[in-house]
Amino acid sequence: MTNPSVNDIEDEREAIRTPDAPPKAPSHWKQEDWDELKRYIRWLCDQLGLRDWEIILLHETTAEVGEGDAIAYIHPTDGQRRATLRLCSDFREMSPEKQRHSLIHELIHPHHRDATDIIRLTLPRSFGGVAYEVLWENFRQQVELMVDNIATAIAEQYPVPDWPKPKKRKEKKGKKP
Ligand SMILES: [Zn+2]
After folding, report:
1. If you measure from the C-alpha of residue 81 to the centroid of ligand 1, how many angstroms do you get, rounded to a whole number?
2. Cα distance between residue 133 and residue 140, in whole Å
């Protein structure tokens, strides 16, 4: 979720130009892990009612993902079944359970996009100023709690990412010490 501002809309336009889940892994990801991440997110989308949504996966530094210690951040595009999903740079190092929870959390957000937009886009015209900011911030916090509670309630019904096992290194033949 995000505060409504011109900057956010500009960011969003920028993100749309980014190719969907680039086939080549970013430098801090192993290619096979990146491929599994894309497969897992697409599978979760299908399970969570986002079959007809396009998710644009971006890799970012932690600071760029969102405020504070955000693990991931999703930004639905106004009027389209499309969203950009950003993951923090150390996402792969987190526990599989934490990865599962944070992805499910983010993939619940698109479901309240249209309801949220009544507050986000329609009310500023009639409220404006501080009254709107207070309303928006309280609404946003409550929606975050709701989404997180739902994610916690359902996460264990889904498998964790099936990361490829690290290849065993061949033991060097040599003299015993
Ligand atoms: Zn959230």
Report:
1. 18
2. 10
Give just the sign of the alpha carbon dihedral 13, 14, 17, 23.
Answer: negative
- 54 class by beta-carbon count within 10 Å (0-12 exposed, 13-18 middle, 19+ buried): middle
CA of residue 18 relative to chain centroid, distance: 15
- Relative to beta strand 82-87, strand 54-59 is parallel
Quote the pTM value: 0.78
Q: How confident is the model at residue 10 (pLDDT cuts 50, 70, 90)?
A: very low
Contact 73, 65 (CB under 8 A): yes
What is the 85 CA–ligand 1 centroid distance (Å)? 11
Ligand 1 center–CA 70 separation, angstroms = 9
Tens-digit pLDDT profile for residues 13-29: 333 333 455 566 777 78
Query: 64 near 14, Cβ under 8 Å?
Result: no
Beta bridge partners of 73: 86
Cα 111 to the center of its chain, rounded Å: 14
